[in-house]
């Protein structure tokens, strides 16, 4: 399993728009075989940082999702919404391999 951590720099005046954008992506990731762990909006501390976590069975499955999402109508609508509202200023992705309680050595 591979977990993608996305760190967003967002416009703090556009939290409502970013939340709408986030809610668009949760079912889309799941539609492409991923498991979304949610978006995390600012609370205390920095008011312009948001996070997302989602997993795919493998990096190859994630790459397949990335390739297929480019041509998906609903994904294109989500990309366009973020661009039109300018709620996402920048983002960076990191990938992690989780250790779960059920894992054995």
From TrEMBL:
Gene3D superfamilies linked: 3.30.70.100
NIPSNAP domain: residues covered: 7-99
Protein name in UniProt: NIPSNAP family protein
Biological classification of the source: Bacteria, Pseudomonadati, Pseudomonadota, Gammaproteobacteria, Vibrionales
């Amino acid at each position: 399993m591979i977990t993608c951590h996305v760190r967003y720099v967002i416009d703090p005046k556009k939290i409502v728009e970013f939340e709408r954008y986030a809610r668009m992506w949760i079912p889309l990731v799941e539609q492409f075989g991923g498991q979304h762990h949610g978006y995390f909006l600012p609370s205390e501390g920095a008011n312009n940082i948001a996070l997302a976590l989602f997993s795919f069975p493998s990096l190859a499955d994630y790459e397949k999702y990335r390739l297929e999402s480019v041509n998906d109508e609903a994904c294109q609508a989500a990309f366009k919404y973020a661009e039109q509202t300018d709620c996402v200023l920048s983002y960076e992705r990191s990938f992690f391999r989780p250790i779960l309680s059920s894992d054995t050595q």
